[in-house]
Amino acid sequence: MKKRAPFILITVLWVSIVAAGISALGNYGNTPGRAAAAPNDWPAGSKIQRDAGGMTLVLIAHPRCPCTRATIGELSRLMAKAQGRLKAYVLFIRPEGSPVDWEKTDLWAAAAAIPGVTVLVDDKGEEADRFQAATSGQNLLYSPEGKLLFSGGITLSRGHEGDNAGRDTIISILNGKQPAQNETPVYGCPIFAPDKEKQKMESAK
């Protein structure tokens, strides 16, 4: 029994470490990022062409966020269900000082391949600032009159595709129904570097 004690101890320790790791991953995957304090009216200074004849969706993303791959997949499903009733933009952040085409990753290519989606560079995150977005995967739906109808994410957790409240809410609004909610959590990486995010929060005080 004494000879087996070290083996038992190591086994218990290993199991504990694995369990802690799984728990940490689960907590991370289900922890949303900071939600946008999106303006209720379409920002006057925005360079994006809002659709005055229909609804406009703005998706703000970091081109190197692995969590956003699931968001792009859900956007593809959303646009297929929208059946031409939705004008959508995906804005990929290009931080100041980044090299040319830094933002043109596989996420850019995947978004650009979705029918009805226009992909744009958000140089220095200027549009993200206008829409007060903080987390990659932030969706903002505006009415033809420029009123905010929905703000949130379209995935159930980080990096996971599948049925979710955000996508269902947008479809409900497109179908003229009253959704159960108009905000959902956003699961993704921070759009801005920590130092810039801190500066933004301090300037907003």
Can you offer a commentary on this structure?
This protein is an alpha/beta fold and 205 residues long. The protein contains six helices and five strands. It has helices at 5-29, 68-82, 106-112, 126-130, 165-174, 194-204, and strands spanning 55-61, 86-94, 117-123, 138-142, 148-152. The chain has a five-stranded mixed β-sheet. The protein is globular. Residues 18-28 and 197-205 have low confidence and may be disordered.
Relative helix content:
25-40%
Tally the helices. Answer: 6
- β-strand percent reads 15-25%
The N- and C-terminal alpha carbons lie at a distance of: 64 Å
State the main characteristics.
alpha/beta, five-stranded mixed sheet, 6 helices, disordered C terminus
